[in-house]
Write a structure and sequence with these properties.
single chain; 213 residues; four-stranded antiparallel beta sheet; globular
């Protein structure tokens, strides 16, 4: 195993690069993102401490398909491909863990796509925050997140100004507390319920809308 340190804003792993290590964030906060040839950038998800990533590219022996940037100073653990493949070949428990991790990540991305298409901005911000506490991906996530509004905006793919409005609303509902350095989630179940209830309202409204031939 190796350990590397990255400054805030540094590229931990770049799209198109060969993948020779399985990576985990020991400390810090990062984001996965993709960029078009025209320069448009879309954030896929956040990566907090304790999370492994990059297993798909290792398994498929392909170049990395996304960038990973440190949003704050970060420490990263790297497992060599040889060790990764040895564990896959010899450990049933390791393969079960990989299967559960891939399934959890697939569910995360499907949920993000669903909420982006169905929910309003406030609910998307709520979903973004709730997703950072996915028990399968982030089993030890603290309720206090050292993330700023700019970082939340990147993860939710909305403007910073709109994130501020959404967070003020979530704080007024007693779901989060905005602090000088980050925010604290006060009611995780409430965040989940908030996004679910708004999603039901959108579906119901669409069902009532007149259909045009």
């Amino acid at each position: 195993m190796q350990e590397r340190r990255y400054a805030g804003g540094a590229c931990i792993a770049g799209a198109g690069q060969p993948v020779e290590h399985w990576m985990a964030l020991i400390d810090g906060f990062a984001k996965m993102s993709v960029a078009s040839e025209g320069g448009r950038v879309s954030t896929l998800t956040g990566v907090s401490a304790g999370v492994w990533f990059g297993e798909g590219s290792l398994i498929k022996h392909e170049a990395r398909r996304y960038d990973v940037f440190a949003l704050r100073p970060a420490r990263v653990a790297l497992m060599p491909r040889r060790t990764f493949e040895w564990l896959r070949e010899t450990s049933i428990a390791f393969n079960h863990y990989l299967q559960e991790l891939l399934n959890a990540r697939l569910s995360l991305f499907i949920g993000a796509l669903e909420h982006e298409r169905l929910l309003d901005t406030d609910a998307r911000v709520a979903h973004c925050l709730a997703s950072l506490f996915n028990p399968e991906l982030y089993p030890d996530a603290p309720r206090h997140l050292q993330v700023g509004q700019t970082e939340v905006a990147l993860l939710a793919n909305v403007s910073r100004q709109r994130v501020n409005v959404a967070l003020q609303r979530l704080q007024a509902l007693g779901l989060v507390r905005i602090e000088r350095r980050g925010l604290t989630v006060l009611d995780l179940a409430g965040l989940d319920g908030f996004q679910a209830s708004l999603g039901a309202e959108v579906v119901a409204r669409d069902a009532r809308a007149p259909r045009h031939a």
